[in-house]
Amino acid sequence: MTAFPYRKGVLHAEGVPLSAIADAVGTPTYVYSARALTERFREVTDAFEGHPHLLCYSVKANSNLAILRLFAGLGVGSGFDIVSGGELARVKQAGGDPSKTVFAGVGKTPDEMAQALDAGILLFNVESAEELEALDAVGRRLGKRAPFALRVNPDVDARTHRYISTGLKTSKFGVPFEEALALYARAKKLKGVKALGLDCHIGSQLTRTAPMRAAISKVAELYVALKARGHALEYLDVGGGLGITYSDETPPSPQEYARTVLAATESTGATLLLEPGRALVGNAGVLLTRVLYRKPTASRTFVVVDAGMNDLLRPALYEAHHALQPLVKRRGRAVEVDVVGPVCESTDVLARARPLVLPRQDDLYAFMSAGAYGMSMASTYNSRPRPAEVLVDGEAWRVVRERERVEDLWRGERA
Ligand SMILES: *Cc1c(COP(=O)(O)O)cnc(C)c1O
């Protein structure tokens, strides 16, 4: 059931009318549903019940401390997937457990590696031969063996938007499949690292099981081959990428996803690491915005709202679709409009050619499915302070990040 239902024509987050939040906090504002976050997490982890696994929430999808704290509290199987020292600091600050956290990314610095190793990270997902040597140096310097998994690139087309596809040969991510055996053999000679797993991640917003099955089966075979060569691996990290419904996509359910992953990895006996981001938070959040102006022109009708591409980058960055819903339903004939933000860029179009009952000034709307890669991608471009964030829980709600203030915009600058 959606966490954002209409009741008597008024859009709610759980038991709270969204217009009450907009009135109290202003717009633009991100609003998240604690119930939706919790239910989704449980749904995914329950789908893997009976099979050893850790659900490592991918922090970059939404890194608000309140969300990290909520996930950290959901039991022994809840870990994190991070891509920077900053995300590690967030996980620690939110009470997350570094020993259930995996560290990915093609450009980890030695400093970040040392911080993570000190914190007792579960494993590093290593993405190149030179990174492996750098990790070894850090491990030796700290007198530890840094646990790692090699991220291999299975060269499978994830059939998603090219900007969020990461598993092709031409991608900057992972090491070529063919080089993996040699790299694990090399690692055996190094005193500062210890092979603990194998990793892949083929892309985001995946809506079909076939590419997942193809990629994960390939990686599972490699896992078995590595074990046979005496590498004491324990973890098979299958990455994230499970898609969600933004408009009419029909991604696999968590249960279908689990069936696909479990079938592909059956032969390994490994503890599975899952790194969902979008699938846990995407449909648990919305972005509230207010209509500033209507602007009819000869070719189209623009509706100018107070949220822009700096607040929600996905439409401008990868032509993403976010449904738009009025906070108070109105009757009338729909016209086709372009909903645009105030930012001085032609790509600042949040919704293109949408049928909408022509709004009035000050009408409030919600961009739906904005919980993932929304606030975490927000910037202050055009010197626009970033939005507030609110977490709803039943009838209660609280601000979990204050709206940025103008003074924050030049913090650290010298005039
Ligand atoms: C971004 C990312 C994820 C999460 O991707 P989603 O599509 O949000 O599930 C998981 N693993 C890695 C390595 C990532 O970079």
From TrEMBL:
Function per UniProt: Specifically catalyzes the decarboxylation of meso-diaminopimelate (meso-DAP) to L-lysine.
Designated name of the protein: Diaminopimelate decarboxylase
Ranges that cross the membrane: none
Entries under SUPFAM superfamilies matching the protein: Alanine racemase C-terminal domain-like (SSF50621), PLP-binding barrel (SSF51419)
Gene3D superfamilies: Alanine racemase (3.20.20.10), Lyase, Ornithine Decarboxylase, Chain A, domain 1 (2.40.37.10)
Enzyme class: lyase
GO BP annotation list: lysine biosynthetic process via diaminopimelate
Orn/DAP/Arg decarboxylase 2 N-terminal domain segment(s): 37-281
Protein residues bound to substrate: R278, R314, Y318, E345, Y373
Keyword vocabulary terms for this entry: Amino-acid biosynthesis, Decarboxylase, Lyase, Lysine biosynthesis, Pyridoxal phosphate
UniProt binding sites for pyridoxal 5'-phosphate: G241, E275, P276, G277, R278, Y373
Reaction catalysis annotation: meso-2,6-diaminopimelate + H(+) = L-lysine + CO2
Family membership noted in the UniProt record: Belongs to the Orn/Lys/Arg decarboxylase class-II family. LysA subfamily.
GO molecular function: diaminopimelate decarboxylase activity; pyridoxal phosphate binding
Associated pathway: Amino-acid biosynthesis; L-lysine biosynthesis via DAP pathway; L-lysine from DL-2,6-diaminopimelate: step 1/1
Domain Orn/DAP/Arg decarboxylase 2 C-terminal: 30-371
Coiled coil start-end: none
Active site: C344 (proton donor)
Organism for this UniProt entry: Corallococcus llansteffanensis
Positions bearing N6-(pyridoxal phosphate)lysine: K60
Cofactor annotation: pyridoxal 5'-phosphate
EC number, as in UniProt: 4.1.1.20
